[in-house]
């Protein structure tokens, strides 16, 4: 279980790491924002994680592999994120689809860096490719799920009509990461603590089955300023994760 620093905009990386550890999390999903950037001193960040006793579960970048325009700016942004993930010890980099331009040439251009760094590119079920069926089409042609795969955000496939079972089946071996989150409903995506909203998280747990990988809580405080601190949502997410982990090991 990990906590995304999207939910802790008022905390430093070290403070977020201590909060995650105190809640029973093993990792921190590190958002590329503020003190975390491609030119940062990664040694201090790694020391902060080590002192808290958590790992870097993922680097949450904002590159868009399908963004309109020329390939090179996207490729350079991906390379910078891969390098930062490697320096921070993060096994994956989250990116968005973000358009309808072909992602294949851009991903292919950074495959050598992904292989050399041992980092996995994670395309999130988001924006223009919100379902598992849509997102997996961006990565499956490479036939390298250890290097190019999908991050399943619990909210977006469901609100676009894809059940958790359908998402899991569509992703197959390309499922690399799961973000647990809940919301008021399909049209009102205001976050609520896991278990208090309409997202079928029990169905997600059943669909995940015995899959083992990072699960993180994404609490979107920067996009919903009225949200309270992450603490209640984190407790609920850890409780959901513990139930899921128990089921998967039974």
Automatic annotation (TrEMBL):
Question: What domain of life does the UniProt record list for this protein's source?
Answer: Bacteria
Provide this UniProt record's keywords sorted from A to Z: Isomerase
Q: Where is the Xylose isomerase-like TIM barrel domain?
A: 18-243
- The answer to whether keyword Isomerase applies is yes
InterPro entries assigned to the protein according to its UniProt record, in alphabetical order:
IolE/XylAMocC-like, Xyl_isomerase-like_sf, Xyl_isomerase-like_TIM-brl
| Sample GO molecular function, one term | isomerase activity
The record's Gene3D superfamilies line, in alphabetical order, gives: Divalent-metal-dependent TIM barrel enzymes
Name under which the protein is recorded: Sugar phosphate isomerase/epimerase
């Amino acid at each position: 279980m990990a906590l995304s620093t999207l939910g802790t905009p008022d905390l430093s990386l070290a403070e977020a790491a201590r909060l995650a550890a105190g809640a029973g999390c093993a990792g921190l999903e590190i958002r590329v924002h503020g003190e975390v950037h491609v030119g940062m001193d990664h040694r201090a960040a790694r020391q902060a994680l080590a002192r808290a006793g958590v790992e870097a579960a993922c680097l949450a970048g904002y590159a868009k592999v399908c963004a309109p325009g020329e390939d090179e700016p996207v490729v350079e942004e991906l390379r910078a994120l891969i390098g930062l993930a490697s320096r921070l010890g993060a096994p994956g980099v989250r990116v968005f689809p973000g358009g309808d331009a072909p992602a294949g040439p851009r991903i292919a251009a950074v495959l050598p860096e992904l292989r050399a760094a041992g980092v996995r590119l994670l395309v999130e079920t988001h924006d223009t490719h919100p379902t598992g069926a849509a997102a997996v089409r961006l990565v499956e042609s490479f036939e390298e799920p250890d290097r190019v795969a999908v991050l399943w955000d619990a909210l977006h496939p469901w609100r676009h009509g894809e059940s958790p079972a359908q998402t899991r089946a569509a992703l197959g071996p390309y499922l690399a990461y799961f973000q647990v989150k809940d919301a008021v409903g399909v049209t009102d995506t205001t976050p609520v603590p896991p278990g208090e909203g309409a997202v079928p998280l029990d169905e997600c747990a059943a669909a995940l089955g015995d899959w083992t990988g990072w699960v993180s809580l994404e609490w979107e405080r920067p996009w919903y300023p009225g949200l309270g601190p992450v603490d209640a949502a984190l407790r609920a997410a850890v409780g959901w994760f513990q139930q899921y982990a128990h089921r998967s090991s039974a």
